[in-house]
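Re: the 154-residue chain
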Amino acid sequence: MVSEPAALAQSRAHADRALRVLFSGQIRERGAAISDVYVDALLMEMRDLAIRNRDELSGPLARLTAYDARHNAHLAETLRACLDAFGDIIEAAASVFVHPNTFRHRIRRVAEVGQIDLRDSPARFAAMLQLRLMPVNGGGGARSKDPSPATPAS
């Protein structure tokens, strides 16, 4: 409950942000407070900003998506699965329906083609953020700023 009239606007803004997350279908709950969905709301707002600024993929993710498009590969999907599984190869491989050895090979290709050191925490965070904010595959495909040639598939 809002006890001061000045807090009414902020309360309404929080409710609107929470409702936007709920209506997006990203979570299964039927109701939520902003504190329950704050990160989801923040990511949606960051995505809106990226779209408004006409941002494009850059760095490793741009290289991976460009390579995927040229070679019908799945390196961006592999990176997402690896990061989502917190590096658990068995879980990540199962999520993309490949054998763990195939997944390990793909992760080596991700590092090589994307020129990303997956041991580097800031590099992983940057990739995770771009994967969450920018449509990479399926839903509209992001444009890539980095058309640099990648190494051929092995």
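The helical segments are 5-24, 34-52, 59-71, 75-84, 89-95, 100-114, 121-133.
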